[in-house]
Amino acid sequence: MSTENGNKKLTPVSELGEFGLIKHLTKNFSLKHRSSIKGVGDDAAVLYHQEAVTLVSTDLLIENIHFDLIYTPLKHLGYKAIVVNLSDIYAMNGEPQQITVSLGLSSRFTVEALDELYEGIYAACQRYNVDLVGGDTTSSNKGLIISITAIGTAEAENIVYRSGAKVGDLICVSGDLGAAYLGLQLLEREKEIFLADSKVKPDLEEQTHLVGRLLKPEARKDTIELLRKHRLQPTSMIDISDGLASELFHICEQSQVGCRIYEENIPIHPETHQMALRFRISPTTCALSGGEDYELLFTIDPKYRDELDDLATYGIRVIGNIVPQAEGKKLYTREEVHDLIAQGWKHF
Amino acid sequence: MSTENGNKKLTPVSELGEFGLIKHLTKNFSLKHRSSIKGVGDDAAVLYHQEAVTLVSTDLLIENIHFDLIYTPLKHLGYKAIVVNLSDIYAMNGEPQQITVSLGLSSRFTVEALDELYEGIYAACQRYNVDLVGGDTTSSNKGLIISITAIGTAEAENIVYRSGAKVGDLICVSGDLGAAYLGLQLLEREKEIFLADSKVKPDLEEQTHLVGRLLKPEARKDTIELLRKHRLQPTSMIDISDGLASELFHICEQSQVGCRIYEENIPIHPETHQMALRFRISPTTCALSGGEDYELLFTIDPKYRDELDDLATYGIRVIGNIVPQAEGKKLYTREEVHDLIAQGWKHF
Question: N or C terminus: fewer CB in 10 A for chain A?
């Protein structure tokens, strides 16, 4: 039985049932890849990646741990949930082709709310040319739970692991860092103000970059394509989800090397810089330990220095270089040398 | 900082951190398949299924929706979480080779508790020859959440979909049905008694089959191997997770056929029969609508009738046959004909 809420029709999920709901939510999704032989609707999806290898990455997103629906529109959430998983496939230098989406839903979510979530999922699938091929939908006693598995392919010789960085390699990043972290601080502050007095309107108009980077991140498909076009194969790569420092630690640990990063080369957006100072945080700290940037961090043979410098116009920046493991992991500021500390996101 | 609880050391997860925890939990898992090129530890797992197709199935398990830790040992839960996903790969006539495990953990779970969970996951991986290749571990504000993705392979021509049943085909099931449902009723009853008076010991010794079927199900790897050995390729197949009736509906809908099932042929274990009567439920209803059996339901060309009858010793039973769609979905008892009703599990 549907009810009217204002002008909006609200349909409880129970009206459709589990299988009806899946059918309803996935009815607009068509399969685009020849590799997607069978999508939603059987015991398993059937994929055929021929001679290419298959890449699999998975993420679990839990309401009020990973997202707050007070300031996150469901459409944005759906989009972001997909994008952050695709980011992992790009970070292997692969091409994402399929995703599965599992949802745990408490009874407060109506069919219309889920339609919004799936609008975002659909938009991400279109933008990144990815097929939705499966999932699981169940009730939840605890808000919204989203589990995504992203599946991609790559030629075996093109895969870039975290473990391939060599001494002397240049360390590069795409885009700019620290913005999503400040977007989160900003929205959390506005939420507190709103909860204290719901008549106060949020004042976010000047912070579109920060809020946009948090709520609607993009995966760096363009960076991967750019590097490929210029025949620049990174020696190691990772996506920046937990902050630059934490990801540098992963690369250094798995490649058994050290690194030297120059503070002045870390790309920080002017809006990030300004807001960090307003929050009395160092902009560098936001970049090093913020997280949720979904930029790519990669290392590359120094013989490609000139080609890399040409890519500066596309936002690819050289921020340092790989050194022997014994030299540690260092941040060079204009005046001093610091040991890098990996804080990352602390979920525990 | 670890604390002592009786003689048992209890370590908060925060002591290890996310990456330390993943390392700790997965340290005993080695990769067994040549197709598992890279497992845990990079942005994505790397698999190589060569010319075979890749099968992907995923499940989301939420505490107090799908399992109750009052009567579910963590080791059993870990085992079951894997097995029910592998069951989906077998139901495609595939061979499971890899899994990913994502966990959402509230702070009440210690490292030692997770060790137990992973003991079960490890046992299932060993028993079914499957590699753990990835996952995600995060905190949860709401108990335990487990998301599993199972990945398998099959030769394209061997895949069995839900959609291939033909009029005249024999309908078969492996094992026996309805036991897990009664195991659940039994444990729920004991839980209520225990919550009312914690001095009363549970009396489950005579119900090992029922409780075992609920807490430690197995996937029918043996049935798939048996059918392959006898060169019997099903025309359609599905695993019975929501009850026989619901799965028959899926096959009939996707194959655009009807079915006729004979009540007396539905395999029910004596313990199931006895307990159903004690609970004043029809044993047939338990089999039709119970769920969590993880047996295989499949259809097969009637020319193989004799071969199938030979497999009765392995617990393969012919329970009916496929009829034209217009004839509907019917249950024949000794005296009457009923329309089948698909109730399945109602999560919503």
Answer: N
